[in-house]
Each structure stands twice: as C-alpha cells, then as structure tokens.
UniProtKB/TrEMBL annotation:
Protein name per its UniProtKB record: phosphoribosylamine--glycine ligase
Keyword check for Repeat: no
PROSITE patterns registered for this protein in UniProt: ATP_GRASP
Alphabetized UniProt keyword annotations: ATP-binding, Ligase, Nucleotide-binding, Purine biosynthesis
Gene Ontology terms, MF aspect: ATP binding; metal ion binding; phosphoribosylamine-glycine ligase activity
A single GO BP: 'de novo' IMP biosynthetic process
Entry keyword annotation includes ATP-binding: yes
Gene3D superfamilies with a match to the protein in the record: 3.40.50.20, ATP-grasp fold, A domain (3.30.1490.20), ATP-grasp fold, B domain (3.30.470.20), Phosphoribosylglycinamide synthetase, C-terminal domain (3.90.600.10)
InterPro entries named in the record: ATP-grasp (IPR011761), ATP_grasp_subdomain_1 (IPR013815), PreATP-grasp_dom_sf (IPR016185), PRibGlycinamid_synth_ATP-grasp (IPR020561), PRibGlycinamide_synth (IPR000115), PRibGlycinamide_synth_C-dom (IPR020560), PRibGlycinamide_synth_C_sf (IPR037123), PRibGlycinamide_synth_N (IPR020562)
Species the sequence originates in: Sulfurisphaera tokodaii
PANTHER family: PHOSPHORIBOSYLAMINE--GLYCINE LIGASE, PHOSPHORIBOSYLAMINE--GLYCINE LIGASE, CHLOROPLASTIC
Protein EC: 6.3.4.13
Top EC class, one word: ligase
Length: 477
C-alpha cells in the first residue's frame, strides 16, 4: 500500500518511522518543505518518492496526490489542516489522517473553541472574553481585578501569550499597565478580525491527551507532558516544546486513572460537539492540552488538531503494536479494529535547538550540525530530525528545534543517558537544550496533590466548575 505523508519535522519523522517499520510493507511517499534526513531514510527504505514544496498549498498537494495516488494519507502539522489539505485528499477520494479545515478550527481559533465548549456545556471550560477592538481589551485589563491570561485569538505557534497572577495587591496597577503595553504585540500575530482573547488564569500541572477518532470510535493514547519554556526550571520564552515525558503505562506520575478517564470524556464530548457544529465527522487526532486545576480538575487550555510535537516523539516509540496499521485504520475509518499495546516503561524527549530559537529564526538558521548517529543509537538514544535540512552531505539548521532525542527508560536513567548522547552532537553555533526534563517529577506530584485536594473539596461542596470573581467594579465576566 502507498502512503503519502505531509510534514517535515520530528513528529513526521516519528510517524514515517512507524509506517516504515510496519510489517504491512507500506511504500512511503512524503511532501516536505525541505529534505528532512529522518523522513528521507523512511522514504528510501520503502522505495518511495520524496517531494519538496509548499505543504500548505492545496494546489501543489493536489498535484502530488494525483501523481502518487496513495491508498491513504497522513498529515502531521497543523498549518496544512488549516489550509484545507485534508479536504483535498477526501475530494480526491483518498482516506487521510487529519480533520477537514472546518473541524481543525478547534485548534486554529481559540475563540471558536471556547464558544463551542460553552455552547455544548463541556466540562473543563474556562471563562473568557474576546476582543476585536484593542482599546476594549486594554480597558478590560485595567479594570478587571483578577488573574488573567491574554492570548492571540488564533493559533500562532505558542507566541504572544501573557499571564498575570494578581497575588500582590500593591502591584496590581503596575502589572496591568505593563501588560497593556504588550497588547499590540500580541495582536500583531493575528490575521483574524477578533484579535485578543482574555481567559481566567488557572494553575496546576499540564499534560496532553491525544485521542484517535474516526467519527465512530475513539481511542485514547498515553498521556504526555510538554516542557514549553526555553530554559531550565520553566523560565524564558515559550517555545514549541523543548522536550516531553510520557508514562509510566498510559498515564503520568501526577495524573491518576480517574483524571485520565475524565480527560478522555472531555475530548470525546468535544469531538461530538464539533460534528454537531460543522456537520462533519472528526477524523484524525484530537488532542487536549490540559491542566489539572482547582476549578475543574482536568481543564482544557487549548486543543490540537494533530499530534503535538515533541509529545509525538515521547508517545509513538512506546507503542509496541503496529502503529502504521493503526494510522491506516484511522484514515479508513475502521479504528474499531485497531489494537494498541503500550510499553509500560516511561520515555523522555529532549529537543535541541540552535541559539536564537525561538525569538530569532534568522539567527538560528543556516548553521551546520554534526551528529554521530551510530554512537547515539548504540547508547540507546533514538534520534528524530526536526528543523534541519540535508543539503549535500551536510545538515543545515532551518531556525527551529533541530533534533529530538528519545530514551525509553526510568525517568532518571533516561535523563542521564540523554546527557551522554548530547556529547555526540556539535555545531558551528551554540546549541540550547534543557537538562531538567524528566528530573522534576516529584515537584509535579506534589503540585498535583495540592490541586487535587482543592477540586475534590469543591466538588463535595457543589462548587465544581464554579469560580469566584473579585474586581473593583463588582465582576466583569
């Protein structure tokens, strides 16, 4: 069978590897904007063809679909989904892993997502206000007396999010004035008419639940946690993710089975609501980026319409059953026949990026990276190639996270092994990565216990999902 994979990052490298290793003998063709060496390895291994071009262009993708005539497709990143690339496959009669653009609005528009959750009374929803006029947003920030999160109204790769925790009354005005100065910058990321969304701020450990859904059957994947900030101990600018952990088993050390099931129920209800709202079945991966909070327990921060990256690198290698076949069954809407066996051992992912990421893509681009792949694999580290292009015999950075290293082992041993593997990677620029990924589990467990006590107490008192407001004007929500 022929498969057409779209995307060019580490997530797509992980998907390509799973397809290439399938006993079903898939022939993998791929479309990328540059030559990803990991994807190329899978394409070459299966005697497929590699196409380079604009992965967001429906016209270009349609040409390749007609040339390859695949049995099914797999779309990795979100942007092609937003542009309607999944629609192209289905219009050509080709099954595909990835929702139509109408359904991908769950990720593309934070306003659409929040309105959907409130309209259909889905648990884990946060209160919010959306603003077209930036002056109205500024006035709201200056007048409202609670803790808030200010975000661009649409998906912009994690950029522009600002949070204010109103814990020190004597600093309230100063914090608000500082936050309003960044409103124009936040809005500059957005093309939509609605520019800004302001949400109530919540706190707790974050995690992601990816759910496979073909419109009939839903299968939850193992949980993962993403480490978004650029530097150690969760400081620095937000990134696409500097690493991830998954496990043990289907969960995480700080999320219990009941919370896992509640999270799954929230995502299932959302898939049903999307169908009611759009008239289309959601076929692909629907991922809840969640936080365990004192208001709801499992709470939705945002949704992905695809696998997260680097979460995919933490999850996919732990699937012991034929994940390539699972992707085929998902695309062809026969997911009820899928069997997923998970390695109970945890995994740790560490992303490596050139200096300049995430704020200065130009500074992080066009650097040479040298990798002793054989030695890294001998040490027990799996390597996925991300924003790095194979140009002749050299690996050249493209401005984002270049590599993701993965180890399946006890959290501490995996982290120690990653330390050793990184010694076999060098560059003509400084490389940034985080040592603390997988090493702060106890802190997360302690934080979750505090939050769990809070939401359980509120649930007993009939206050589940209810939060109290304070503001100088008596509450503005």
């Amino acid at each position: 069978m022929k498969v057409l994979l779209i995307g060019d990052g580490a997530r797509e490298n992980a998907l390509a590897e799973a397809l290439a290793n399938s006993p079903k003998g898939y022939k993998i063709h791929a479309i990328s904007s540059y030559t990803n060496p990991g994807i190329k390895e899978a394409v070459d291994k299966t005697n497929g063809k590699y196409f380079k071009g604009n992965i967001n262009s429906v016209e270009f993708v349609k040409e390749i679909v007609k040339e390859v005539n695949p049995d099914f497709g797999v779309i990795g990143p979100e942007d092609p989904l937003f542009h309607g690339v999944a629609n192209v496959f289905r219009e050509e009669g080709i099954p595909v892993v990835g929702p139509d653009k109408e359904c991908a609005m769950i990720e593309k528009s934070k306003v659409w997502m929040r309105e959907l959750m409130w309209k259909y009374n889905i648990p884990g929803r946060l209160r919010f206000k959306a603003f077209e006029d930036l002056r109205d947003a500024i006035n709201f920030i200056l007048e409202y007396g609670g803790s808030i999160a200010v975000k661009p109204s649409e998906q912009v790769g994690g950029k522009g999010v600002k949070v204010i925790a109103d814990l020190q009354a004597y600093l309230s005005n100063e914090k608000r004035n500082a936050l309003t100065k960044g409103i124009n910058g936040i809005a500059s990321y957005v093309n939509d008419k609605v520019k800004i969304i302001i949400e109530e701020k919540v706190d707790g450990p974050e995690y992601t639940l990816h759910v496979l859904t073909d419109g009939y059957t839903q299968i939850p994947m193992p949980l993962a946690q993403d480490y978004k900030h650029a530097y150690e101990d969760g400081i620095g600018p937000e990134t696409g993710g500097m690493g991830s952990i998954s496990g043990p088993k289907e969960g995480l050390p700080f999320i219990n089975e009941e919370e896992y099931e509640k999270s799954f129920e929230i995502v299932k209800l959302t898939a049903e609501a999307i169908k009611k709202e759009t008239g289309k079945d959601y076929v692909g991966i629907l991922s809840g980026q969640m936080m365990l909070t004192g208001i709801w327990g499992p709470t939705i921060i945002e949704y992905y319409s695809r696998f997260g990256d680097p979460e995919a690198s933490a999850i996919i290698p732990r699937i012991e059953s034929d994940f390539g076949e699972v992707l085929e069954l998902l695309a062809t809407r026969r997911l009820s026949k899928a069997k997923i066996k998970v390695n109970p051992t945890p995994s740790v992912v560490r992303a490596i990026a050139p200096l300049g990421y995430p704020l200065n893509k130009t500074m992080a681009s066009n650097h040479i990276i040298n990798i002793d792949v054989q030695k890294i694999r001998e040490l027990g580290c799996k390597i996925y190639f991300g924003s790095v292009s194979l140009e002749g015999m050299q690996l050249v950075t493209k401005g984002s996270r270049a590599l993701e290293l993965v180890v399946i082992n006890d959290f501490k041993e995996a982290s120690d092994k990653l330390d050793k593997c990184i010694n076999y990677i060098s560059s003509d620029t400084k490389l940034i990565f985080r040592h603390d990924i997988g090493r702060t589990i106890e802190d997360q467990v302690e934080k979750a216990e505090i939050v769990r006590y809070t939401y359980k107490s509120r649930e007993k008192k009939g206050l589940f999902g209810v939060s109290a407001d304070w503001s100088p004007n008596g509450g503005l929500w």
